[in-house]
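Late entry, uridine-diphosphate-N-acetylglucosamine complex.
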Amino acid sequence: MQIHLIAAARPNFMKIAPLYHALKREDWAEPVIVHTGQHYDLNMSDAFFTDLKLPAPHIHLGVGSGSHAEQTGKVMIAYEKIIYEKQPDLVVVVGDVNSTLACTIAAIKVNYPIQNSKLKIQNCGRPVVAHLEAGLRSFDRTMPEEINRIATDALADFLWTPSPDGDANLVKEGVDKGKIERVGNIMIDSLEMMRDTIEDENTHLEFGLNKNEFGVVTFHRPANVDNVEILSSLCTSLISISKMIPLVFPVHPRTRKNLEEYDLMPNLAECGSIILTEPLNYIRFMSLVFNCRLAITDSGGIQEETTYLGIPCLTMRPNTERPVTVTEGTNRLCSHTEIESMALDSLKIDRIQRTPPDLWDGQTAHRIVESLKHFRSRQ
Ligand code: UD1
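Prediction complete; structure with ligand written out below:
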């Protein structure tokens, strides 16, 4: 069974790695990594393959950056050719990036000339498409990721969800319940797979910081970094927070471009207690998260990782597609005007050890493999 695992952008690599390793151990499965090239810098892509012990991508589409339509279109055109050439049985898309939607659309509409696989959907002549991390909704259609999630879930055959809210959202949208399976949170598989290496890393010591005495900051969402007023207010807040606790800020390429364009970089660099770095690889970044007192972010994955680890997290967004991180975890949403007072508040709280959300246990890839075995046995 040829299984394409689609990887495109930084947060995808942690989602395909555990599944690749689990499938590689099965004699019936031939996992193939397809990198669309949406992220291409060494430290946004290749470093993650090394850290997560993945081989170099078997297929690289090399699409690069562009507007949403350009990027989505380029991936669709390039991947459709690959599908006809390789005729995979299953295509697994993860998360919510442009390539997730693009590969879903490309795969769902092909029509293989030769029916040579037991697994292809009956009378359909195309690969089965599975969406891993299905059902998440921020209910904010100004977010490109929300459009990608809704459209991908409307099209995919298997919807593998991380939490009960995902199942409920899909059912409300009229999805056939038979397509939905709660498998858990695959990001936690990566974290557990790499835990020993992460714990040995101690990145904070390189920056001269003590465990539990610094904050980690990441921002890259267009809503936070593309608007000069918001970005500038965010920088002012970070400078104030850094007077209470030193901050490490690995800067995403989109954020760096805007900080430079709006001339905000010098203020951050010169304030003395904000350490600005290039984006860090998985192990080094997770080592910072493991040892920090507080995370300030707009990332999806960091909301989940901090919840799992019991670390206070402030998410600079009006909403989240991961509500369990708020109801069951350590995450609090905040606006750019509230961040300073909420950070002060968070610094009063120590780590909060709670039971992680159900099925956030490092066994998600295993559950997917079992589910696929069951599916094969029914073909
Ligand atoms: C994308 C995803 C977002 C995810 C994020 C993680 C979509 C719609 N957005 O956003 O959901 O959270 O990845 O980073 O799919 N760039 C580089 N080098 C790279 C990659 C990007 O310099 O390796 C620069 C380019 O100028 C590019 C810009 O960053 O135009 C944005 O990259 P892009 O992949 O379009 O979106 P992200 O903001 O990274």
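Residues 9-11, 38-41, 44-45, 65, 96-98, 144-145, 220, 252-254 surround uridine-diphosphate-N-acetylglucosamine (CB under 6 Å). Will revisit in the morning.
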